[in-house]
Amino acid sequence: MCRKKPKTRQFFLFNDILVYGNIVINKKKYNKQHIIPLEEVKLESLEDENQYRNGWLIRTTSKSFAVYAATATEKQEWMAHINKCIEDLLRKSGKKAVAEHAAVWVPDVEAPNCMHCKKTQFTLINRRHHCRKCGAVVCGPCSNKRFLLPNQSSKPLRVCLHCYDTLTSTKINNSNEVPQKDRINADTSGEEDSDDDEETAKGHLESPKFYGDCVKQEETQ
User: Fold this and answer.
1) β partners of residue 65
2) Residue limits of the FYVE-type domain (predicted)?
């Protein structure tokens, strides 16, 4: 489930990573494949709602999102297999599960108005933005602050005013997160809020790891 509409993705589960990517040729070719270390993954089941059925959340440190299977059985099998691989990995490797995960973005269609001020109505001029801390859809004035969220990026990210106030007050006891008080340039719009697979090329998230990168490096050595 992307911010604008559902998009088909192919997932591959290994004993230590979960890989997903775009389908170019069904069962033959995929691209823009993202690698998620299983120690970062946390699953949460979703209740069926209207046309969205057999879903669950995949939470990770840098990005969290909802996925939907074709059947209830497929959902149960995927969740069971992923959780089993996570348990085995943590037990055998001694790694610890990640405690903090990125927020799931609220889909655009669920927020005709700003979820912070409740007043601004979104149009072609008044663009939607997503708070990187809570995932809410907010207007520009209600998200004109940035804050460093180390688990998501090495650069300060857009957050809503509510989260900014909470994060800055928490910073007194936490020196790992540094507030960025400079206002966001008014020209920035929905480009930085893209949740498509090119989002990491926009400069606001760390560059993703792609399946096959390691193989290419070995071949060049």
Assistant:
1) 58
2) 108-168
